[in-house]
Specification:
Elements lengths: L14 E4 L10 E2 L9 H14 L1 H4 L11 E4 L13 E3 L7 E4 L11 H12 L4 E3 L1 H4 L7 H7 L2 H7 L3 E4 L24 E4 L2 E5 L4 H6 L8 H8 L2 E5 L4 E5 L3 E3 L2 E2 L6 E2 L5 E2 L17 H9 L14 H11 L2 E3 L2 E6 L2 E4 L4 E3 L4 E2 L11 E2 L2 E3 L8 E6 L4 E2 L1 H6 L9 E19 L16 E2 L2 E7 L4 E9 L11 E8 L9 E9 L2 E10 L14 E2 L1 E5 L4 E2 L17 E7 L1
Parallel strand pairs: 5-6, 5-7, 7-10, 26-32
Antiparallel strand pairs: 1-9, 2-13, 3-4, 3-6, 8-9, 10-11, 11-12, 14-15, 16-17, 17-18, 19-22, 20-21, 23-24, 23-25, 25-27, 25-29, 25-35, 27-28, 28-31, 28-33, 29-30, 30-31, 33-34
Pfam families: HET
Organism: Fusarium proliferatum (strain ET1)
Protein name: Related to tol protein
Length: 565
């Protein structure tokens, strides 16, 4: 049997297709621009249009700025001999731009990216510029430092625009088009097919930004998300992106085409693929967590601070609380929490600064699970070992009492011991033929869940720690977080633990989607993560029984209360 050819399609760039039409319709037109200079008049026009038409979504917020808030004064004449910029204290009504960039391992009080950003601010009639490294006292003993870090949401959302260095590798690279020349656009190749003119116009802007050093750093995530207007300087062109539209130097797009005229201040679908604004609704906090987990941080201790602005904005606008970065949501039917509502697709690495039950305690990309129908209870512990309900934590959220919590959680739920086996599927000779043609099975540790005396379910264990890969032919304690009985998706979610003295630590997660699969409606996935074995040793991709109500593995479950660190 021939193996299916893998789908290797990927987005190589933008192609504009134009076909003849008796009716004139506004379409994006290619714009010729000078790569050696920045067209600041065009950027001013974009900002002016946004100011006039996007008051609801893009107007700078008026949140209270932290005490001793300082900015760089851009009004001073340019002086090539100046060793550092002039930093001044300003009042709460100050209008300023912000800078988002990559600093790198460089000690410089006046790096090139700051010099260039001052020039940009001047050209756009902005008198002040905020730069974290220069406007926040970097002395760790300064009491105002942490307070300003905790106010990143206010600082970036109050900026009239944010300058983003999406081409530099460090703070001395400078802005593309200011310090160093930009790359000329690729030749615009045209071909006509059946009367339709196709024009290739180069790299998608979103791909350009996401593949930049800026797009890989942890601190820059909230800087982009919280800003209402962003001016990206890439090595090809400038992009202006507000919460309602994206504009590119390389395209002339009529502004009104980007909006629905019947509903003021409402955007249309993007005309070009990959020009959807960065802005994500804050209620999509799980998506923000997953995206942030892909980013890199130089210091593990920064995991919470670098995301605190997003968490603060979620608390203010959506009413979400959090404990060490993990959202807590009060709904009509009770509390819901994202603590342990995630797993690592690939094993990560431990961060000693945070607990194992929190995403902040790990390096590596996470995927969120369902969390809306928990079958376990959660409480917090104070330093004096007193148990605290989530309602009490909510009451004390903005007081010093919330600072007295231990970095542990108390879980009450159904527990048992579960067996695991390290399986390399290439060595299994009883796999059905279809396994070799259409279905890939993941090598690694698998949980063993006996369903009946004849059928056993095997489900892949998503390990948290890469250091533990390969050691699983043993039993470990588990707690069932969701049985999936009352949820629409019927996901069975099992938290795998290990004992450490009187406490427990997280090891990984077993996530059986859609319950035990017994029909062709089973979840489609590139890799099979749940398999079944009969007592003769034959493997199956679907259970030959309907969803069992009383599985053997569940008979030993008992309710326990544990403390997880």
């Amino acid at each position: 049997m021939n193996e299916p050819r893998p789908d290797r399609r990927r987005h190589m760039g933008h192609v504009i297709a134009v076909e003849p039409s008796p009716e004139a319709s506004p379409i994006p037109e290619l714009r010729r621009f000078n790569h050696e200079t920045i067209d600041f008049q065009q950027i001013k026009y974009w900002i002016k249009y946004c100011n006039k038409n996007h008051l609801q979504h893009c107007k700078p917020d008026k949140f209270t700025l932290p005490p001793n808030f300082k900015v760089i004064d851009c009004r001073e004449p340019e002086d090539i001999n100046r060793k550092k910029p002039t930093v001044v204290s300003v009042g709460g009504d100050c209008e300023y731009a912000a800078l988002s960039y990559v600093w790198g391992n460089i000690e410089d009080e006046f790096p090139q990216v700051v010099k260039d950003s001052i020039k940009v601010a001047r050209q756009l009639n902005c008198e002040y510029l905020w730069v974290d490294r220069l406007c926040i006292n970097q002395d760790p003993e300064d009491p105002n430092k942490q307070e300003q870090i905790n106010k990143m949401d206010a600082i970036y959302s109050r900026a009239i625009f944010t300058i983003i260095d999406a081409a530099g590798t460090n703070c001395n690279s400078g802005l593309a088009g200011i310090t160093f020349p930009r790359i000329s656009s690729p030749k615009q190749r045209c071909v006509e097919v059946d009367g339709v003119k196709l024009t290739y116009v180069g790299t998608p802007p979103a791909e350009k930004i996401q593949s930049s050093i800026w797009g890989s750093r942890g601190w820059t995530y909230q800087e982009g998300i919280l800003s209402h207007r962003r001016i990206f300087f890439t090595n090809e062109q400038v992009l202006f992106q507000c919460n309602n539209m994206t504009c590119l130097e390389s395209f002339a797009i009529p502004m009104d085409v980007l909006h629905r005229l019947d509903i003021p201040n409402t955007k249309k679908k993007p005309i070009l693929k990959d020009t959807e604004p960065l802005f994500l609704p804050l209620k999509e906090i799980g998506t923000h967590l997953m995206e942030f987990s892909k980013r890199n941080l130089r210091h593990d201790r920064d995991a919470l601070d670098a995301f605190s602005g997003v968490l603060n904005a979620c608390h203010r606008e959506e009413g979400y609380f959090h404990f060490l970065g993990n959202p807590l949501i009060r709904k009509k039917k009770g509390w819901r929490w994202m603590i342990n509502a995630w797993y690592h697709v690939k094993p990560g690495a431990r961060k000693a600064d945070f607990p194992s039950w929190s995403w902040t305690g790990w390096k590596g990309e996470i995927t969120m699970t369902s969390y809306d129908t928990p079958d376990h209870d959660l409480r917090l512990l104070r330093e004096d070992e007193c148990s605290v309900s989530l309602d009490d934590f909510k009451t004390a959220y903005n007081t010093n009492l919330s600072q007295l919590m231990k970095p542990v959680i108390q879980l009450e739920g159904m527990m048992t011991m579960m067996s695991f086996e390290l399986i390399k599927w290439g060595s299994e000779t009883t796999l059905p033929n279809m396994m070799f043609s259409q279905t890939v099975v993941q090598d690694g540790p698998w949980a063993i869940l006996p369903l009946t005396t004849d059928i056993t379910c095997y489900s892949f264990l998503y390990l948290d720690n890469e250091a533990r890969t390969g050691i699983f032919q043993l039993k470990l304690p588990i707690m069932v977080l969701e049985f999936g009985v009352s949820s629409q998706k019927h996901n069975l979610i099992i938290l795998v633990l290990r004992e450490k003295g009187d406490l427990y630590e997280r090891v990984g997660m077993v996530n059986i989607r859609g319950g035990f699969e017994s029909s062709n409606k089973a979840r489609k996935a590139p890799a099979k993560l749940t398999m079944y074995k009969d007592k003769s040793g034959r493997w199956m991709t679907r259970a030959p029984i309907s969803n069992p109500c009383d599985c053997i593995w569940q008979k030993d479950l008992e309710k326990k209360t544990i403390v997880l660190q």
